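DATA CLASS: polypeptide
GOAL: derive structure tokens

***
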Amino acid sequence: MSLKSRKALVTGSTSGIGLACARALAAEGVDVCLNGFGSPAEIESVRSAIEAEFKVRCIYNGADMSKPAQIAAMVDDVETAFGALDILINNAGIQFVSPVEDFPPEKWDQIIAINLSSAFHTIRAATPGMKARKWGRIINTASAHSLVASPYKSAYVAAKHGIAGLTKTIGLELATFGVTVNCISPGYVWTPLVERQIPDTMKTRNMTREEVIEKVLLTAQPTKQFVTVEQVAAAAIFLCSDAASQITGANISMDGGWTAA
């Protein structure tokens, strides 16, 4: 069955992995709702470009993913605008790097809210409609850090481990309703999120930019290459397909061999 005319919400989709997923869905004929931060002009440029290139409907909702009420309202708005919500990709995420004794409590709360709790709130709101229609695809962007840890990333690693557990649990709950729930766990992907954490890591580890890329970011990936956003998006499209209908509750590693060791 084609994905054409399905309806999707991708959180954190104004750049990086989320935008790549939104564009890949649109290329399959899926109407898409974008969500994320950015200037109004930049967001409108992205939104209108998707509509023009792929001839689908593309809307934007600026819900703050740390606010449960705004998340619930966004899901309701998408269902009202499109008539359904068939595909949910939870991709919103932030990062902060610090030794635990110096880790600001407000940063912990913010990362858990955006990287983990937001997925719970979107899934909670989207599930009734998917169950009623007997079809749905929920894909959570996790990380290699859903399986292994790295120093100085206590909140991020905790949140991504939580995403893996949430994926398994909801996958089991929805297994008889035609709804699959999976997460993709990339290694380091060259995105604005990764680029923004380089200065903090340089400071924390007293390294140059080049040393951070070589000795911190890529040291764990045997291929010594960044994962691309297009590769993650392609995996998401496969998980939406009929060919993947028996894949649920899974954590799909895409990390250049990082977690194979």
Remarks:
- The chain has a mean pLDDT of 96.
- The beta strands are 7-10, 31-34, 58-60, 87-90, 136-141, 179-186, 251-254.
- DSSP finds eight helices and seven strands in the chain.
